[in-house]
Design a protein that fits this description.
single chain; mainly beta; nine-stranded mixed β-sheet; ATP Synthase, domain 1; 93 residues
Length: 93
C-alpha cells in the first residue's frame, strides 16, 4: 500500500509499505494491504512501518529512525490517519 506521512512543515515519508502500526486514541492498531477504509485520530507515539523495499537515499531524513533495511519508525505528537483504496495518509504533528 502507499503511505504518505505529512507534517505542517514538510513531507516526512512517501513510499510503498506492507504494514503500519499507529498510535490510535484507544491504543495501537495496525493496517495491512487491502485493509478496510478507516479514519482515526492519533495520539503521541511511534509509527512503526514495514517497507516493501529498503529505504532509498531520497526517502531518508532526520525524522525517520531506521531499525533495519526494511523497517523504520517515526515519532509523532498526534494527528489523523485516513486509509482508502490502499493509500494511507498520515497528517502528523
Amino acid at each position: 500500500m502507499k503511505l504518505d506521512i505529512i507534517t505542517p512543515e514538510s513531507g516526512i515519508f512517501s513510499g510503498e509499505v506492507t504494514s503500519v502500526s499507529l498510535p490510535g486514541k484507544d491504543g495501537i492498531f495496525q493496517v495491512l494491504n487491502n485493509h478496510a477504509p478507516i479514519i482515526s485520530a492519533l495520539s503521541e507515539g511511534i509509527l512503526s512501518i514495514d517497507l516493501e523495499s529498503p529505504l532509498s537515499e531520497e526517502q531518508k531524513n532526520e525524522a525517520i529512525e531506521i531499525e533495519s533495511p526494511e523497517k523504520i519508525s517515526v515519532k509523532i505528537k498526534g494527528g489523523v490517519a485516513e486509509l482508502t483504496n490502499n493509500k494511507l495518509i498520515v497528517l502528523a504533528e
